[in-house]
């Protein structure tokens, strides 16, 4: 999990990450000291405007969030560095009407910039770097995870208006990492650029701490349930794909049986015509079984794309909320407590110095340090309230995504209906072809008829 201790800064990506051999560098740590901003640029105009009404409340719906942008991330095969192979992606944005090439390390730097500029917001986690011997399955899973990451970011209200997102999705120059870092220099984080930050406490409800605890518990429960739903959906999709493989092999074995050229022994010559008819019929059945396998595979892939991926998208969002809650508790609140403890020690030192009548210069230095610490405490209190302010908005954003549940269930039901309908048609077309299997001069057997809805003929 990311651990951003309420700071505005994040550790810079190592220079080796820009080299071909180190393309898959570890994501930067988030426990960096707050940067000292000596010169502040004007942030994006939309972030500086005072919002209308109650700024704490978000009014966006799921449809509005999804309409902000749709970003595709496709693998570009066959890319190689000077010494090692590396993976490159084509990232296409509907909103910016752009298509750019990005490597994994570009995502890492972009992720770092988001944590630096928005430490109190839900920044989705990146998938892991490549491990030795990474196979196609791992690469495809990471491509899907990167696509989920960038779509969650592109649809997030504050992120979607930030210059870093525009650069990442539309800058086609040779070094997007340098451009991203350059854009973040001397800017500061959201707390420093938001006009409402010093007054965040005024907009918070009186029971904000209780609301925070209740919301955190609710979202934890939702996460656990959706995690189980995702696991089951994966198994259902996997079974459909396994079923497709079994049907295909079943048909191939029937075809192999029908194509057998081993001559019949003389004692079986009386049944030679029957065996020949059976072989011809078996060869024809392989076509239907191949079609059945194709339908089952299509259903499995559709459920992977429309059900499992949407569940994973929502789980990524919920996980980023859980990470944010931890950053709030272990970061902002912890730093505030440390600042208060340090202030208490200084006050005791001040009293001790006064009692012992130390030199005036020493006392003045201590007084100056105490004033500095008081200012630091005041800043940490403001950051703590602003963190709660952002948490309140991020909680609303999570709830705005909850209707995605109906999209997921609808996709699952439609996939099942369509899949069973298409396979049922193939099975029905296959049944008349079984009659030749029961044909023969001495055979009184008949192919089984269609089911009678459980009603007995007696």
UniProtKB/TrEMBL annotation:
Region (Disordered): 1-53
PROSITE patterns registered for this protein in UniProt: PX (PS50195)
Alphabetical list of SMART domains matching this protein: PX
Major subcellular site: membrane
Keywords attached to this entry: Membrane, Protein transport, Transport
GO MF assignments: phosphatidylinositol binding
Pfam families: PX, Snx8_BAR_dom
Transmembrane segments: none
Feature: compositional bias, Low complexity: 8-18
One annotated GO biological process: intracellular protein transport
Gene3D superfamilies documented for this protein: Arfaptin homology (AH) domain/BAR domain (1.20.1270.60), Phox-like domain (3.30.1520.10)
InterPro entries, sorted: AH/BAR_dom_sf (IPR027267), PX_dom (IPR001683), PX_dom_sf (IPR036871), SNX8/Mvp1 (IPR028662), SNX8/Mvp1_PX (IPR035704), Snx8_BAR_dom (IPR045734)
Entry GO terms, CC: cytosol; early endosome membrane
Annotated localization: Membrane
Topology of this chain in the membrane: Peripheral membrane protein
The PX domain, residue ranges: 67-175
UniProt family annotation: Belongs to the sorting nexin family.
Protein's name in the database: Sorting nexin-8
Gene name in the database record: LOC111146413
